[in-house]
Amino acid sequence: MKEILLVLDLDETLLYATTNRLIQKEDFVAGIYYVYVRPDLEYFLSQLAENFKLAIWSSADDVYVEQLVNKIKPSAVNFEFIWGRSRTTKKRMSLTDEYHYVKRLSKVKRKGFLLERTLIIDDTAEKSMLNYGNAIQITEFTGDPHDDELLLLASYLEKLRNVENVRLIDKRYWREQVKSI
Ligand SMILES: [Mg+2]
User: Fold this and answer.
1) What's the 123 CA to ligand 1 centre distance in angstroms?
2) Which of 6, 75, 88, 154 is 20 to 30 Å from the Cα of 46, by its Cα?
3) In this predicted structure, what is the pLDDT of residue 63?
4) How far is the CA of 30 from the centre of ligand 1 (A)?
């Protein structure tokens, strides 16, 4: 069976980039941004790379995404693709009249990946609303040095790795499921 593809968001999911420096020291600086890497990120990516395919898809500017991903990528980890805003679709919300850059997984499918074997992980539900059955929503990261979301998520994902069709699994209460083990 083909490995599951994990499509990971970048901002507030894997790191926090801000122009307002926090109390603790940043991990690195990129342009005008102080960048704080989410705790356990290196472990998370290295561990999951053993049993999953990994990719990055952010709705931020393409050059920014490329630059930051190069900084956080462990040398032994390879991403299937690194996509930025140019791959998202601008969508107007009928209720609020706001625009969102959404990620259409049909673009991932066109690259040859099976959607039954694809999970999209994001801190913003709207970004993956068109692919509800593939989405895992996580809490946003804004620099908390005690954040343990990636450790919890890694445990949960390990349980899913042999699932034939990820779309058939209810992933809304994933955190409770990990904690109850
Ligand atoms: Mg995000």
Assistant:
1) 5
2) 88
3) 97
4) 17
As averages over each run of 10 residues, the pLDDT of the chain (181 residues) reads: 92 98 96 97 97 97 97 97 95 82 94 96 83 93 97 96 94 88 57
- How many whole angstroms from 3 Cα to the centroid of ligand 1? 24
Cα-based angle 135, 115, 16 (whole degrees, multiple of 5): 35
For the chain, list the domains and their CATH numbers: 5-179 (3.40.50.1000)
How far apart are the CA of 60 and the centre of ligand 1, in A? 9
**Beta carbons of 175 and 155 less than 8 angstroms apart:** no
**Which pLDDT score, from 0 to 100, does residue 160 have?**
94
Ligand 1 centroid–CA 13 distance in Å is 5
Q: How far is the centre of ligand 1, averaged over its atoms, from the C-alpha of 141 (Å)?
A: 9
Residues 6+ away with beta carbon under 8 Å from 133:
166, 167, 168
**Ligand 1 centre distance from Cα of residue 159 (Å):** 24
pLDDT of residue 91: 86
Q: Which of helix, strand or coil describes residue 139?
A: coil
What distance in Å separates the CA atoms of residue 14 and residue 150, rounded to the nearest whole number? 8
